[in-house]
Specification:
Blueprint (H helix, E strand, L loop, with lengths): L5 E10 L2 E11 L4 E5 L6 H8 L6 E6 L5 E4 L13 H5 L6 H10 L2 H4 L6 H6 L8 H13 L5 E5 L7 H18 L2 E5 L3 H7 L2 E5 L3 E5 L1 H4 L2 H8 L3 H9 L2
Parallel strand pairs: 3-7, 3-8, 5-6, 6-7
Antiparallel strand pairs: 1-2, 1-4, 8-9
Helix pairs in contact: 3-6, 6-7, 10-11
C-alpha cells in the first residue's frame, strides 16, 4: 500500500509480563474502513489504546504526518440524574455555538426536527443522561467531529442500541466517510456489519488470525480460530442478515 494513513509493525503489548497482543502487522489506507473482530479478551480494545498511545507497547504505530485522530468510546456510564446538559457537555471543547450546531446537524439531528433552527430545544438543553442509546452515540460522534479528525476510532459503535438505531448509526458513518473523507476503524461483533461496511477486516485473538477484504479472509477456518465452537453461530448469524 502506497503511503498508508496508518502502518502497524510488529506490535506487542504486555501487562505484568502477560502478553495481550503479539506480532500485529497491518496497514490502513486513507478513506478506508477497517473492522476489528475477535472474541472477548482478544485484545481489540487494547489495540485501540495502543493506536492512541495510551498504553506502552513494542513495535511501531506510525500515523501519516499531521493525522488528526478522533475516538468514540463504546459507551459512557452516565447517571440519568446527572445535572449536565448536552450543551454543557459540548462546552468542554470550547467551540462556538455554530460549530456545535453544525456538528449535531452532520449526525442527523437537524433532520429529526419539524422546524429547523431549534437544535438547543431538541438536544442541547436536555440532560445528557436521559438521551437514548442512539441519541447519545450520535452526540458522541458529533463531539469527536468538532476537531475535524482525519480518522475516527469506534469501540463497538452500536453496543446497547436497538436494530433501528444500529442501521441509523452505520448509515450515518458511511455518509460521514463519503462527505468528510474520513478513515474509520471500528470494533464490531456483528459480521453482517463487517461484510457490509468494511474494506478490510483484522481478526484478533491476541495475535493476528487474518487480515484483508472480509469476503476473502473470513472463511470457516479463520472463524474457527477466532471463535472456536461458536464459529458456526457467527456464520449462521451472518447468513440470515
Amino acid at each position: 500500500m502506497k503511503d498508508p494513513l496508518l502502518r502497524v509493525t510488529d506490535l506487542k503489548v504486555k501487562f505484568d509480563h502477560h502478553v495481550v497482543l503479539d506480532d500485529i502487522n497491518f496497514e490502513v489506507g486513507k478513506d478506508e474502513t477497517l473492522a476489528v473482530i475477535g472474541p472477548n479478551g482478544a485484545g481489540k480494545t487494547v489495540l485501540f489504546r495502543a493506536l492512541l498511545g495510551l498504553v506502552p507497547y513494542e513495535g511501531k504505530v506510525e500515523w501519516a504526518k499531521g493525522t488528526k485522530i478522533g475516538y468514540v468510546p463504546q459507551k459512557l456510564s452516565i447517571e440519568k440524574d446527572l445535572p449536565l446538559t448536552t450543551l454543557e457537555f459540548f462546552g468542554l471543547k470550547e467551540k462556538s455555538r455554530k460549530e456545535i450546531d453544525d456538528a449535531l446537524a452532520s449526525v442527523g439531528f437537524e433532520e429529526d426536527k419539524p422546524h429547523k433552527g431549534h437544535l438547543s430545544q431538541h438536544v442541547l438543553n436536555r440532560k445528557i443522561g436521559v438521551l437514548s442509546g442512539g441519541e447519545l452515540q450520535r452526540v458522541l460522534i458529533a463531539f469527536a467531529l468538532l476537531e475535524h479528525p482525519d480518522v475516527l476510532l469506534f469501540d463497538e459503535p452500536t453496543a446497547g442500541v436497538d436494530i433501528t438505531a444500529e442501521e441509523t448509526i452505520y448509515g450515518l458513518l458511511r455518509k460521514l466517510q463519503e462527505r468528510e473523507n474520513l478513515t474509520i476503524i471500528l470494533i464490531s461483533h456483528e459480521l453482517h456489519v463487517v461484510y457490509r461496511y468494511a474494506n478490510n477486516v483484522i481478526c484478533l485473538n491476541k495475535e493476528k488470525i487474518c487480515f484483508g477484504p472480509p469476503r476473502e479472509v473470513l472463511d470457516k477456518e479463520s472463524l474457527e480460530k477466532l471463535y472456536g465452537h461458536e464459529a458456526g453461530v457467527y456464520e449462521h448469524h451472518h447468513e440470515h442478515k
